[in-house]
Protein: Glutamine ABC transporter permease protein GlnP
Organism: Paenibacillus auburnensis
Amino acid sequence: MDFAGAFSAANLGFLMDGFYLTLIVAFVSIILSFVIGVIVGVIRYAEVPVLSPVMFFLVELIRNLPLLLIIFFVRFALPEVGIKMGLTTAAIAALTIFEAAMIAEIVRGGLTAVDKGQIEAARSSGLSSFQTLWHIVLPQGLRHMVPPLVSQFISLLKDTSLATIVALPELMHNAKIVMGQKESFTIPVLLLIAVLYFAVNYLLSVVSRRLEHKTA
């Protein structure tokens, strides 16, 4: 094991560049997939005519496809029909599509878990369907959503490593290049990757627990 060689200034900087891109891709994908997922989840919960069945079909379709296939589709198939994106944008788009479908189901499940009696009480007190959803259902549904949402965000962060298959220069891609320099670099680099992923995911877990306590 050659820790000194593996973590030379050039190699360490190269690995940190990959880690930075991993965080950027994950952060943007989390924001976009959360926004889209909430909208789609609410539409499914509200059983909007026409829209809800369409959303149901799309969510079930995407949820049952491998993420790797979606990455390949966005990167290689969409340009064939005139939709061209840069490598980073394509990775974000693929992750967003996949994760939004997962989050939509989490949101729908969280909203469905709200006690029906409270919804009926809100409606009988004069609140509209939208007001009931906004003031009663969403705040309470959030309590049920926090743990699975954070788990999904953690999965998204780890899933960014799949983008190495299309040569996105994220952490795993750059790590493979460094490990290819010398066999003795393999263990030090893998240990560093494990520490970086663990640190970020553990931080997300801590945030999740605190949010659970606040919403309890």
Observations:
- The mean pLDDT is 90.
- The first helix runs from residue 3 to 6.
- Residues 19 and 171 are 5 Å apart (CA to CA).
